[in-house]
User: Fold this.
Amino acid sequence: MKIRRMSHGDFELMSKWLHTKEVLEFFGDPDAPPSARQIHEKYGPRIDGTVAVEPYITETAGKPFAFMQCYRLMDEDYRSYGYSIEETIYGIDQFIGEPELFGKGYGTRMVTEFLSFIFNERGAEAVTVDPELTNPRAIRCYEKCGFQKIKKIDGERKWLMEIERGRWAETF
Assistant:
């Protein structure tokens, strides 16, 4: 498995994935998939580094199959989640874009490898995810990776889940 930085050459791939019913169920709006222009406008600045969200593509056997991104939490998230602004807390988001790979362990493996990168290369003290309560597949994946449910957020629609560096180091 390889995790690489997303490039401008990945826009067509992202468009395909962001028009997939199974992806849009939890990542985007199923009633309004993004246009090619919207994908360029959202992910172009991230690729170029002008927005502080780092986008990545995950491959297996040389074939792209997933999107991942990481970012330092925004100040308002630090406050609402109960973190000190002095802490280095990252958030991550991801999806598998190829539905035939769901339920086969790819998610757990890619999240585990991504956590290694974030803890070791970005110096995070903790990493958060916020899956929807209605997404048990993602919640199970995150729990396998060592995340713990902290509290419900976004009008009780999502779980704030967290893994601290020490817990990750003990687990992996």
User: Anything to note?
Assistant: The chain has one domain: 2-171.
